[in-house]
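Allow me, if you will, to draw on your knowledge of protein folds for a short while. The matter concerns a single protein, recorded as an amino acid sequence and a row of backbone structure tokens. Kindly check, if you would, that the fold set down in the tokens agrees with what the sequence suggests. You will find the record immediately after this paragraph.
***
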Amino acid sequence: MKVDGTLSVWGASEIVTEARRHEKMGYDGLWTSEAAHDPFLPLLLAAEHTDQLEVGTAIAVAFSRSPMQLAYTAHDLQSYSGGRFTLGLGSQIKPHIERRFSMPWSRPAARMREYVAALHAIWSSWNDGTKLDFRGDFYTHTLMTPFFSPPPTPEGKPPKILVAAVGEAMTAVAGESADGLLAHAFTTERYLREVTLPTVEQGLVKSGRDRGDFAVSLLLLTATGRTEQEMANAVKHTRRQVAFYGSTPAYRAVLELHGWGELGDELNALSKSSREDKWQAMGALVDDEVLNAFAVVAEPGRLAAEIRRRYGALVDRVTFYTTYDIDTDVWGPVVQELSRRNFKSGD
């Protein structure tokens, strides 16, 4: 199981320090997300100052850019990093695409499928010399001259593409057209086993591939601490994060699988209320059964074993997702144990 970290600093020197620290601690990758900052620029620094660390986006917003614009950025990062870049894509939601980015929105699953295909067509024209003639329902790319064609990436390999998904339609798109899936934090072991992975398999069959050609990466809600006080704080904040996601109608299917649909209704109603303490009240509705379905709750010494027990047969990569402050040194032994770098052959 590979373990990835999340970049949470944005100053140039801090980015370099964090990238080096993650590589030294044994992380396999370091991801950025697109929120208040551009997700791509920090990765150039991270790649420049590391040797083995994979770098990637989790996620970059696809529909805020044309496939051609994103193809150039991803192609260059793949070249600059020596083939260590992974492009994680997400659709975002309609209000942000239309009102924040002023871009069109329609049929997100179908658009994402075509978007990925367009990227591959553009990269093929640069890496393999294939004539660019992509014509779809949403995007058309038919012009590419030598002046605008960059040199091939190392070994002519394009970046891998991971698609973020919760619902079955977008999950099927990931299985059919991408190199992997970025599973949302509001995902349980049961939902992965009974809904996500079977849907991925259907997409893989359509594209003539098998599970070995595909990577599932899970953003894993994790509550841990070295002391009782730290554990209590971690659990409190993790309950609230589960409640926040549970209040979103788009994620209701996960709750319904477990028979917790009414909880979703309660959380949604509270989130829209005028109560000053609504976020605390929402967290209180998340009992231990719900909490432990969505999060791994364990002391640092038991964390790796618990993650491997629950998700070892389901996912290929994990990223620890915490909503509380904790000493980053806690993660070193966990990373080492999960990736088995400190295990002798045969152990």
Summary: The first strand starts at residue 2 and ends at 6.
